[in-house]
Amino acid sequence: MACGADAPRAGRLAWRLRNGFAVASPIAERLLASARVRRFAGGAVQLLAERRYVTTERALLSCMVAACVVLGAVAFAATGSAVGAVAIVVCALAGAAGLARAAADRRGDSVRDAVPDVLRSMGTCFDAGLSLQQTLAQVASEADGPLRSLFAHGAHVLDTGGSATEALGGLRQGSGASELAFVAVALDVQHQTGGSMRQVLDAARDSVEGELALRRSLKVQTAQAKLSAQVVSVMPFALVAVFSLVSEDFLSPFFASPAGWALLGLALGMQAAGVGMVRRVLAAGAAS
Asked: Which domain of life is it from (predicted)?
């Protein structure tokens, strides 16, 4: 597989993503102290790995820091305003975060939607008398996307002498889907204690299908609130960036007096409060 279609990409971009920028590495290391940044970087690394780009969290963040510095310098040269340059960088970061989040959501949805078919295929394999290693290999040959590599890795662990706990543990941790993690735990317990795998898989499939229906309903109900949160978060910075490009002295009056500084501080505080309120609404809707 390393020499075929799943081989890591080559080229200047792949090399840069793999090695990062040494100058920006200390800043990336400090950013990784934040749990939210670590989650974002970890998800981005996983998404890039699925596109055959090999990188690490620190290397990826160092590339992002370097890109922000270059973009900020170009924006400052174009607008002549430091605030406008910062607004453009913030908009670019928000756009990148939105794309990464959308890609992660699509990946999660594709994994969850494929779980019932995977469970049905696994049940058929166990009924045919295949072993756990043969079942994982068979599912890997039939599945698409992230699940293919996960099941192939599990089969490889068993084929090289690893235990079922190790193989299913990798499947549980790498899926990123609670539905598949639950199935991996159930299979591990059932494999150790013995019994019918078919009953476990049928019960898991019924549970997963019900949870998928609930997730789809919740996604439809919270779509408008999520769009509102994105507009509230990005629109002010986008407007500042546009006006700074049109008029270089657009924000100069705000820095000419203490009242201007106070108004800017009030605007940023209202912006943070609005984003926080919308996120609380989304969290409350997801919890209910």
From this structure: Bacteria
Only one residue has tokens 């494999």, namely: 191
Q: Where are the domains of the chain?
A: 29-107, 108-214
Over residues 40-54, mean pLDDT: 82
SS3 142: helix
Burial of 184 (0-12, 13-18, 19+ CB in 10 A): buried
Task: Look at residues 217, 216, 210, 219 and name the one whose alpha carbon lies nearest to residue 116.
Answer: 210
Q: Dihedral angle at the C-alpha atoms of 17, 18, 19, 21, nearest 10 degrees? A: 20
The phi and psi torsions of 11 (rounded to 5 degrees) equal 125, 175
Distance CA 133, CA 160 (A): 10
Stated pTM of the model = 0.61
Task: Please return the burial class of 96, using the count of CB atoms within 10 Å of its CB with bins 0-12, 13-18 and 19+.
Answer: middle
